[in-house]
Amino acid sequence: MKKPDYLIYATLLDKFSSYLNSSEIYQQYWGFSENAEKTEEQFEQEQFQSLIDAINRKPFESEAADMGTAFNEVIDCLIENRKSDKMEISSDKEKAIIEVKFKTYKFQFPLSLCLEFSHYFKDALTQQRVTAQLETKYGIVEVYGVIDELLPNSVHDIKTTSKYSAFKYKNGWQHIVYPFCLIRNGHNITDFEYNITNFKDTFIESYTYQPERDEPKLILHCEAFIEFLELNKNLITDKKIFNFLTL
To answer: Which of 123, 131, 195, 222 is the most exposed place for a label (fewest CB within 10 A)?
Structure first.
């Protein structure tokens, strides 16, 4: 394998997409509001800064993100029949909940929901890191990420959200990057599911990776992202994305 010129993880490609689609996202939420809390220009600047912060791996606090992390850990512990070494997890059968203490938060998840997810992923391999190299006109990109649940014939990513609308994740890159990596490593798995919950209902978005359609899309998106990186290199303090170790 050659030394890659860039190291890019899948959800960072999602962040870049959000930045590119700032105007569309703004219109969706505030386009028809007479008293919008921010202007479109302010929102675009926020998306830009959020992307730069993600590239620089700037720590941030998000209760919603930590709630998703906690739920995912509960499911993995149930699948693997183990205790967590990351957070404190306990069950209350009387209240039919699983309680998680994580950082400064205390979360409660319906026991039935946790069992539904863990049974669906019975015998899955959890938290599988995948990586593969992609040739672009700007050099070699190593794309990578962590698969939440890997079954023999399908890839799964667990999503938690307060509000769900159909095809919410259709513009995401995990359902392209993860199968791409698996196929490049000799595992012909093309089916992908986002398994989604708002902690009341569950939803599934299914996608099938098609190399002839999806690999060129991935190359073009990575090339556009590289152009963004090089244009804003002076703002990037964490050089890992350029395959340099930050001292």
So the answer is: 123
Which of 8-12, 33-37, 64-68, 116-120 has the lowest average pLDDT?
A: 33-37
Please count the residues of the chain. Answer: 247
On the question of pLDDT at 200 being above 60, the answer is: yes
Tell me the pTM.
0.93
Amino acid at 166: A
Distances, alpha carbon 118 to alpha carbons 124, 168, 204, 241, in Å: 9, 23, 15, 34
Residue 195, pLDDT score: 98
State both tokens at 242: 């350029």
The per-residue pLDDT for range 91-145, each reduced to its tens digit, is 999 999 999 999 999 999 999 999 999 999 999 999 999 999 999 999 999 999 9
Rounded CA-CA distance 151/121 in Å is 7
